[in-house]
Specification:
Blueprint (H helix, E strand, L loop, with lengths): L1 H24 L11 E8 L2 E8 L6 E11 L10 E8 L7 E5 L9 E8 L3 E11 L2 E11 L5 H10 L2 H21 L3 E4 L6 E4 L2
Antiparallel strand pairs: 1-2, 2-3, 3-6, 4-5, 4-7, 7-8, 9-10
Helix pairs in contact: 1-3
Amino acid sequence: MKDERMIQHYAPWLSLLFLVSSFILHPSSFLRADGGSVRLSEQKGNYHITVFTAPTPLRAGPVDISVLVQAAATGEPVPEAQVTLKATQRDPPGVAICSPATTEAATNKLFYAATFELPEPGWYALEVSIDGALGQAEARFEMEAAEPLPRWLAMWPWIAWPLLPISLFCIHQLLVRGRSHGNLAPRRYYAGKKGPHVGRLS
């Protein structure tokens, strides 16, 4: 019964700890390959092209761009296509950044992925070029990158993650001490017909 009461007592703190750990281990600022926000989903030529960007919201700095290329007629993913991405800063005009998107860079091998370093916040035009078994196609859209996070905030998951095992250890020690104190509860003697007996104080 004492263990149950202790668990109930610390349950809110445990819930809060696991909630905080979920943000530490899976912060939204991390790049998530093969996913994120859908920026484009449309048919171009014989392909249906879907483009995802991460992080969300999009910010200046490293960004992940993933492309799902499907056959427009069947919806089947198109393998072994050559996918090229080009990001051009719109205002003020900047140098175009080109990179191939490959399945090797993607976690999900149905996607073609690449990582870009957007030099500063602002609007960018992104061009997606595809050359595959069903011919060639191009798609284009614009995206806005917000101000980058302060460096300390971008790094806080890596700084804060040691707090999780330390907190778990502290809670474990509290539970162990509480159980030990329960086992060492004071006792009292009382007389009965068959002689003195020992009992715990309630």
